[in-house]
Amino acid sequence: MADQNSTVAGQAGLAEHDGGTAPGADAAVAAAGSAQEATGRRGPKLGAVGWLRWGWRQLTSMRTALVLLFLLALASIPGSVLPQQGIDPAAVSQYYAAHPTLAPLLAKLSLFDVFGAPWFAAIYLLLFTSLAGCVLPRAYRFARGVRQPPPRAPRYLGRLPQTAQFTVAMPADQALASATAVLRRRRFRLRSDDGWTAGEKGYLHEFGNLLFHVALLGLLASVALGGLFGYKGNRLLIDGQTFANTPTALDVFRPGRLVAPSDLQPFTVTLNRFTASYVMSGPQRGEPLSFNGAVSYTSRPGGPSRTYNLQVNHPLNVDGVQVFLIGHGYAPVIKVTDGTGQVSFDQPVPFIPIEQSGLSSAGVIKVPDASPQQLGFAGIFLPTAIDVNGRLASAFPAAIYPRLSLVAYAGNLGLNNGVPQSVYSLVTRQMHKLPVAPRPLAPGQSITLPHGLGKLTFVGYRQWMSLAITYDPGQLPALLSALTALAGLILSFLIRRRRMFIRVTGDGSGGSVVAVGGLTRSDAAGGFEVEFAELTEEIRTALQASQPNSGRPAGDEAAVAQAQGE
Amino acid sequence: MANSGLAQYSNVTLVLAILVYGLAMVAYAFDFAFTKRAARAAVAPATAPSKAESPALVGAGADRAGLSFAADPGDPSELADLSEQDAGPAGGGPGDSVTIPTYLAGEQPRWPTGTWLRTAFGLTCFGLLLQISSITARGIDEHRVPWGNMYEFIAAITCAAVLILTLAAIKFRAYYMGLFVLLPVVVALAVDVVVIYTPAGQLVPALQSYWIAIHVTAMIIAIGMYIFGAVVTVLYLISARVERRVAAGTARGGGIMSQLPGAAALDRLSYRSILFAFPAWTFAIIAGAIWADHAWGRYWGWDPKETWSFITWLVYAAFLHARATAGWRGKRAAVIHLVGFACLLFNLVGVNLWITGLHSYAGLPG
Question: Which of A80, A341, A478, A504 is most exposed, with minimal Cβ within 10 Å?
Answer without folding.
Answer: A341
